[in-house]
Automatic annotation (TrEMBL):
Membrane spanning residue stretches: 20-40, 187-209
Coiled coil: none
Domain Histidine kinase: 229-444
Catalytic activity as recorded in UniProt: ATP + protein L-histidine = ADP + protein N-phospho-L-histidine
Keyword Transcription assigned: no
GO molecular function, one term: phosphoprotein phosphatase activity
Family annotation (InterPro entries): BphY/WalK/GraS-like, HATPase_C_sf, HATPase_dom, His_kinase_dom, HisK_dim/P_dom, HisK_dim/P_sf, Sig_transdc_His_kin-like_C
Compartment(s): Membrane
Cited PANTHER family: PHOSPHATE REGULON SENSOR PROTEIN PHOR
GO terms classed as biological process: cellular response to phosphate starvation
Protein name: histidine kinase
Keywords: Kinase, Membrane, Phosphoprotein, Transferase, Transmembrane, Transmembrane helix, Two-component regulatory system
Claim: DNA-binding is one of the keywords in the record: no
């Protein structure tokens, strides 16, 4: 993986890594900013909800307001003032105004050289009567000579006589120092938490940017390897064709019979190139997704294929045995299954000697169709077993090229198996050789007796 990262770090694809990171980071930033604003707004609107409701209720209780005013008047003449520790004032305070909006109960009288009620004095200085605020709740912060400022929420109301004539105005105040301190502390906690997670989002953005880029890098590497291998496969036959044609020009008076060897070699390379391009086209189509088109199939379908394999094996002086054990019909894509079997049979033919033995067994277990293709060739090492399904990979390149192999067949076979939701595995075939084990998921619509196909035996019986 480290080699892969280094191999493409300078490619054009990696240039988008910064954009991916920026997109993720901006997305996280917007999310955290929106959450912070929503949480703070909810906290601000909720923290004073009870206090505001109490002010509204108090405004509907004139007897209680009158008692607060009398209490303030008695305290305003006291020869004392709040201690220097900045303690909170009373929970509720009231200011009265006449019908013109002028304060009608002064509270700043001086006794023995000292101010009266310090809280009322500062409220009178800080609050301005405004008729537009009648019926609404406002906030105000007043100066405190002995510590932190006092914070109040207040409601302005009009008072009327029995004829509904306005005879004055009342402002009811509620101290909210503790609530504001609690709100500030909670907001600080929210901001700190969001800032920490915002910093963490930078690391998450980097991880997601690399994580989303990794499949692209892997695909790019596979594409690069595919193009390199395809170019290599095409370069060899093209070089042979060029050399053969140059030899033909060196002897322009020669007949076709004289140059039959060069012509035959050139034709062989052309056929090889045609096979290569056909397989490359098939791979490109398979990469876009296989479409399974199942149809009802019985054992006769496999027996007919085995007859063709038997003739090919006899022509190569090899022995082929095909056995099908199938109860009834199955639904499968005959074209893809035939291609899969042909790839595995052709692979067994190439890697077995002249006295080679090739066996294909087809069975059914539950909803799976099992294919076993074995040979007695040289076998495949454990290291090669991990790579034989890679495109253009060949166990014995020199021998495979000589026999026309391109290293694409098993890759196609695996794609077919994967499209079926099955699996393909490679095992040793003692005493020597290789066995391919394939499981394809199918359906079993009907049931019929099992049939066994043994071509060699049938040929012997006919003789």
């Amino acid at each position: 993986m480290h080699h892969l990262m280094n191999s493409v770090k300078n490619s054009a694809i990696v240039k988008n890594d910064g954009k991916n990171f920026l997109h993720f980071f901006l997305a996280f930033t917007v999310i955290f900013a929106a959450l912070t604003l929503i949480i703070v707004q909810v906290m601000r609107s909720g923290v004073y909800k009870t206090t505001d409701q109490n002010l509204l209720n108090l405004g509907q209780n004139p007897d209680f307001l009158k008692s607060i005013v009398l209490h303030q008047q008695s305290n305003s003449n006291a020869d004392s003032h709040p201690s220097s520790t900045g303690q909170y004032g009373p929970a509720n305070t009231v200011l009265l105004y006449d019908e013109k909006g002028k304060l009608i109960i002064p509270t700043t009288t001086t006794v023995a050289g000292q101010n009266g009620n310090q809280i009322l004095t500062q409220l009178e200085k800080s609050v301005r009567f405004n008729r537009s605020n009648i019926g609404t709740i406002q906030s105000v912060s007043v100066h405190n000579d002995y510590g932190a400022n006092w914070n109040y929420r207040y409601l302005t109301m009009a008072t009327v006589d029995t004829n509904d004539n306005i005879i004055g105005y009342v402002q009811v105040f509620a101290n909210v120092d503790q609530l504001k301190e609690s709100l500030s502390r909670n907001i600080l906690i929210v901001l700190t938490t969001m800032a920490i997670f915002w910093v963490i989002s930078i690391l998450i953005s980097l991880y997601l940017a690399n994580w989303t880029l990794l499949p692209v890098m892997l695909a790019y590497e596979k594409q690069k390897e595919f193009v390199e291998n395809a170019s290599h496969e095409l370069r060899t036959p093209l070089a042979i064709l060029q050399n053969r044609l140059e030899l033909l020009f060196q002897n322009p008076t020669a007949t076709i019979i004289d140059e039959s060897e060069n012509i035959s070699a050139s034709l062989s390379e052309v056929r090889n190139m045609r096979l290569l391009t056909t397989n490359l086209l098939n791979l490109a189509r398979r990469d876009s997704g296989l479409k399974i088109e199942p149809e009802e199939t019985n054992a006769t379908f496999f027996e007919n294929i085995f007859e063709s394999y038997q003739m090919l094996a006899q022509d190569a002086d090899k022995t082929f045995t095909g056995t099908v054990k199938l109860d009834g019909n199955v639904n499968l894509d005959q074209s893809l299954v035939k291609q899969l079997m042909t790839i595995l049979f052709d692979n067994a033919m190439k890697y077995s000697n002249e006295d080679g033995k090739i066996d294909i067994l087809i069975t059914k277990s539950g909803s799976y169709l099992n294919l076993f293709v074995s040979d007695n060739g040289e076998g495949i090492s454990n290291e090669d077993k991990k790579r034989v399904f890679d495109r253009f990979y060949r166990v014995d390149k020199a021998r495979t090229r000589q026999k026309g192999g391109l290293g694409l067949g098993l890759s196609l076979a695996k794609q077919i198996v994967v499209a079926y939701g099955g699996r393909i595995a490679i095992e040793d075939n003692p005493p020597k050789g290789t066995k391919f084990v394939i499981r394809l998921k199918i359906e079993m619509p009907t049931v019929h007796p099992a049939r066994i196909f043994q071509k060699n035996k049938e040929i012997s019986d006919k003789k």
